[in-house]
From TrEMBL:
Pfam families: TctC. This is Tripartite-type tricarboxylate transporter receptor subunit TctC. Residues 1-26 form the signal peptide. Belongs to the UPF0065 (bug) family. InterPro entries: BUG, Bug_dom1. Keywords: Receptor, Signal. It comes from Ottowia thiooxydans. The keyword Signal applies.
Length: 327
């Protein structure tokens, strides 16, 4: 009887092991087909360029096509919503930027829940932002600009890539610090505002180093300060606005990759690890730094903490500068 019971117990144990091992054994290799990275902004911008650089290298590494699809519009909501509602199988991912954490503070209704519907994979880069004027303007320094702004009628203007964007926040905090009124002019991207600054339609504008660098190199724009918390390694002689006495928020622009919530953890870890490997390659580091982008390649856990902190900070910052959520 004892032997029969033992054999029965062994049989049950074997059945349980087979049941548990089944899904693991059945888990297919990943990827086995094309992987899509959705960029919620127009082609040609810095987020798009970084994503395409990564996609090219990931395609070679994975032996599968890695496609970049631009779904711009509604302050990045359209592309983000598409990914948030995509299957959680690792074949559709979001390659986005700081707007992700701004949207919940900017709009009363958003068609997805950032914290519930998306999961962090990795922050790819940190982005340095400049406060710019035309090189032929009379403003040689930030002090020159502030002095002119105190008496300017109509007020001096600044461009940003949209209402409630980080550039908008920078501009309002800068105006508060200088004790002046500045007219905010929102655009749909950095390049249009930079173009209008070059054309004389704006007094000043904010832009990432990558967008501004060609115009700094050819002598058409002048940086008055770095809006980021540290000096840019590309422009080490340009002081931060904080160094110049401005009370600026501790905000750092970023690009990063997320996936639909529920994407298997092994896939999340693989994508993060493979992107980290690419972002440490010397030629990739040089390409990015030449555009004013600092490679980060954080872990999924570290990026998720960053997102959670930023979501709280943006909801606090907007009321401070008088920006109310839109319907």
């Amino acid at each position: 009887m004892q032997i029969k019971l033992s054999m029965r117990a062994l049989g049950i144990a074997g059945l349980l092991l087979a049941t548990l091992a089944g899904p693991l054994a059945a888990q297919p290799a990943w990827p086995t087909r094309a992987v899509k990275f959705v960029v919620p902004s127009n082609a040609g911008g810095s987020p798009d360029r970084v994503t395409r650089l990564l996609a090219e290298r990931l395609s070679k590494k994975w032996g599968q096509p890695t496609v970049v699809e631009n779904k711009a519009g509604a302050t990045s909501i359209i592309g983000t919503d598409f990914v948030a509602k995509s299957p959680a199988d690792g074949y559709t991912m979001l390659s986005t930027f700081t707007s992700l954490v701004q949207v919940p503070a900017l709009f009363k209704r958003v068609p997805y829940d950032t914290e519930r519907d998306l999961v962090a994979v990795t922050q790819t880069v940190a982005v340095d932002v400049l406060f710019l004027v035309r090189a032929d303007s009379p403003y040689k320094t930030l002090q020159d600009f502030a002095a002119a702004a105190k008496t300017a009628k109509p007020p001096l203007s600044y461009g940003s890539f949209g209402n409630g964007s980080s550039f908008h926040i920078y501009g309002e905090k800068l105006a508060q610090s200088m004790g002046v009124d500045l007219t905010h002019v929102p655009y749909k991207g950095e390049l249009p505002s930079t173009t209008d600054l070059l054309g004389g339609q704006l007094s000043s504008s904010f832009a990432s180093v990558g967008t501004a660098l060609p115009f700094l190199t050819d002598g058409r724009l002048r940086p008055l300060g770095v809006a980021s918390t540290k000096r840019s390694p590309v422009l080490p002689n340009v002081p931060t606005l904080g160094e110049l006495g401005m009370n600026m928020p501790d905000l750092v622009g970023w690009f990063g990759v997320l996936a639909p919530a529920g994407t298997p953890a092994p896939i999340i870890q693989k994508v993060a690890t493979d992107i980290r490997e690419i972002l440490t390659q010397p030629d990739v580091v040089k390409i990015l730094r030449d555009q004013g982008l600092e490679p980060v390649a954080s872990s999924p856990e570290a990026f998720q903490r960053r997102l959670n902190e930023d979501l709280v900070q943006w909801k606090k910052l907007l009321p401070e500068v008088g920006i109310k959520p839109a319907d």
